Amino acid sequence: MGESYSKWLESEMAWVQELEHKMKKDAGKYYLLLPIAGAAVLGIIAVLSGGAGDLLHAVLRNALIGFVFGGVCIPLIYLLMLPALPVKKYAKSIKSEIEDVLSAEERENFAGQMLGAGGEVKCISWIDEEKLENKVRVSKDYVLHSSRMGIALVQLNRVQNIEEDVNEYTVTGRGGGFKVTQYVTVYELKFFYQKSADGGKRNWDRKLTFSSQEIRRQVLQGIKELSPEIF
Q1: Taking a C-beta distance cutoff of 8 angstroms, is the pair 159, 190 a contact?
Q2: Whole-model pTM?
Q3: pLDDT of residue 209 exceeding 50
Q4: Which of 21, 201, 205, 216 is the most buried (most CB within 10 A)?
């Protein structure tokens, strides 16, 4: 592993570990409320049905049951949360997006550009709905989109054309016994590594998706400034 790539990889894993730490910390706040909520609910039930036996004894007994119930739920919920934690997913996406695609020499070039060696790097960052950082870095030859879900790499030195697109998706779920429908609009950049031989429409090779039109505009502007030859 080259020096530049090793240095870049170390910084990436430190970044995603910080995201994971924040996710665990935020989740921990809710976990601590489970025993208290369970104790409070069962205590109230004991008060409302306090005609039989010693009321104080009933409240304390139900409160203890609530604490035990919450204490049992915490590790179970934590186990269910493990697949959503980002560090392992991020490492896998680095392998599939970079290590399985770029040669050792290309990885060194990529890492050098991401670290700002020999050229400008534009970084566009924002906070998503989970209150976690997302970022896109643009260099002369690469675009790298990083989030808790992993990375997406575009090789600008292969891009022949870029198209903007907008899509609206319908997300249906249930809340409070009612069917809830949400409409989600996403703003896309589609990258084509080759032009169609007959001039017709062909499928995109890489696609970046954003929840904000302004973020997409900033990313596209960064590409125009650092790789104007594409346009």
Answers
A1: no
A2: 0.75
A3: yes
A4: 216
